[in-house]
Specification:
Helix 1 packs across helix 8 and helix 6 (138-144) crosses helix 9 (198-205). The chain is α/β, with parallel strands linked by helices and 419 residues long. The chain has two domains: 8-205 and 345-411, Crotonobetainyl-coa:carnitine coa-transferase, domain 1 (Rossmann fold); 240-331, formyl-coa transferase, domain 3, CATH 3.30.1540. The strands form three sheets. Strands 3-2-1-4-5-6 form a six-stranded parallel sheet, sandwiched between helices. The protein has a three-stranded antiparallel sheet with strand order 7-8-9, covered by helices on one side. Strands 10-11 form a two-stranded antiparallel ribbon. It is 37% helix and 13% strand. It binds coenzyme A. The site of coenzyme A (COA) has 23 residues, from helix 1, helix 4 and strand 5.
């Protein structure tokens, strides 16, 4: 039994933002039917390939637990099947460029005629306004949503982050909207349009930076290292490097081996309640009561010097050793984990957040499983489907006969027949 057993999703998504949303729904147990263009499918199947003629890791890591049907939705046969799928499903999820669904012949009014209970969930780059027709990809979203201007170091370029906050962050927001719409449909009996714009989703994830923008009107931001360094603030939220964005100051500090290992670092938070333990562990017990050190406010103008002292201590220890010493003392630290560290982490394997799967053409591959754990809705992660792997099975489920299948295949609506 899974939480979304019985929920049927017509997955019209491609690239990353949409597929990350429908993958979450599939992990919670929804039946996700991915419609793909005959012959080529989702463009990511062939992007960033590591093995010739094999579905890329890009695709296989974003489309777990789904079924795939090949369908040319612009052909007459494809339109017929699409309508039947709309009648069969609870939610249609899409992240085409603005207007594509309408050009396919399915404006919202028509969708409602086909199935008034269907929820239409869309991802677009921008919400309503002058840019609503613009196409947007991940890094663009990070720039237009406020992440890039506030990420990186003061003296460097605006920086995009590796976290796919524009794509996967928007997918998460959309998934939440879909669940809310399904819940509302329980009382109204009707579907609705759900829209998550990438700009808005990134902005929601960066809301602390809008907080700081408004604080600037009332003085400098004392927790930013630039304050301690005596560098004046301008009129926009500056890039904060690795400074903590919260009320507890934090920095990335070097650990043993940093000269040769790009990830021999730890994050270290000078959390107020842990101040006594921090002073003891780094060998500065007098700082616990010394004037100028004994309260978070008093320490603010010496943060850089304090972190330098803490770093002298972390540099003598490995990043995992720092964690082993500090965690039992309730000092919030965390090693900078490389992708390799994460793939090899036994706890992540045991919890199912890192999984190993078998794929018919690529063989074994490692992926990220459902990060959300539920006590009564377990997520068995299954491999991504091959292109059109479930076309026949899905048509049969929709009530099509073998003769219908032959007709649709011959017409080209389903792509070429499999040998
Ligand atoms: C991501 C994006 C920039 C890609 O643009 P693109 O490669 O040009 O793809 P589009 O979405 O414009 O779709 C291309 C065409 O394929 C068509 N198509 C897609 N699947 C089809 C199918 N199964 N059968 C027939 N036609 C299909 C679409 O109808 C569209 O045709 P149109 O241009 O005549 O309207 C764009 O889809 C977009 O801006 N999406 C919204 C924001 C988003 O999700 N961005 C993040 C992506 S990770």
């Amino acid at each position: 039994m899974q939480a979304l057993d019985g929920v049927k999703i017509l997955d019209f998504t491609h690239v990353q933002a949409g597929p990350s949303c429908t993958q979450l729904l599939a992990w919670f147990g929804a039946d996700v039917i991915k419609i793909e263009r005959p012959g080529s499918g989702d463009i990511t199947r062939s992007q960033l390939r590591d093995i010739a003629d094999v579905d890329s890791l890009y695709f296989t890591m974003l489309n777990h637990n789904k079924r795939s049907i090949e369908l040319d939705v612009k052909s007459a046969g494809g339109q017929e099947v699409l309508i039947r799928l709309m009648q069969h499903c609870d939610v249609m999820v899409e992240n085409f460029a603005p207007g594509a669904l309408e050009r396919m012949g399915f404006p919202w009014e028509r969708i409602q005629e086909v199935n008034p209970r269907l929820i239409l969930a869309s991802i677009k780059g921008y919400g309503p306004g002058p840019n609503e027709d613009a196409k947007v990809y991940e890094n663009v979203a990070q720039c237009i949503g406020g992440s890039a201007s506030t990420t990186g170091f003061r003296d460097g370029l605006p920086l995009v982050t590796a976290s796919q906050v524009g794509d996967a962050g928007t997918g998460l927001h959309l998934a939440l909207g879909i669940l809310a719409a399904l819940y509302q449909r329980e009382s109204t009996g009707r579907g609705q349009k759900v829209m998550a714009a990438m700009q808005d989703s990134v902005l929601n994830l960066c809301r602390v930076k809008l907080r700081d923008q408004q604080r600037l009107a009332h003085g400098p931001l004392p927790e930013y290292s630039q304050h301690g360094e005596g560098i004046p603030f301008g009129d926009v939220t500056p890039r904060a490097g690795n400074d903590s964005g919260g009320g507890q100051p934090g920095r990335v500090l070097k650990c043993k081996g940093w000269e040769n290992d790009p990830n021999a670092y730890t994050y270290f938070v000078l959390q107020a309640p842990a101040w006594g333990a921090i002073c003891d562990v780094i060998g500065e017990p007098d700082w616990k009561t010394a004037p100028g050190y004994d309260s978070p406010a008093a320490r603010l103008d010496k943060l850089s010097a304090i972190f330098e002292r803490v770093e002298q201590w972390t540099m003598e220890r490995g990043k995992f050793e720092v964690m082993e010493i500090c965690a039992p003392l309730n000092i919030p630290v965390g090693p900078v984990m490389s992708s390799k560290d994460l793939m090899e982490d036994p706890a992540l394997r045991a919890s199912g957040t890192v999984v190993e799967l078998d794929h018919p053409t690529r063989g074994a591959y490692v992926s990220v499983g459902n990060p959300v754990k539920m006590s009564a809705s377990h997520t068995p992660v299954t491999r991504a489907p091959l292109l059109g792997e479930h076309s026949e099975e899905i048509l049969a489920q929709l009530g099509y006969s073998p003769e219908d299948l032959a007709r649709l295949t011959q017409s080209g609506a389903m792509g070429r027949a499999k040998p």
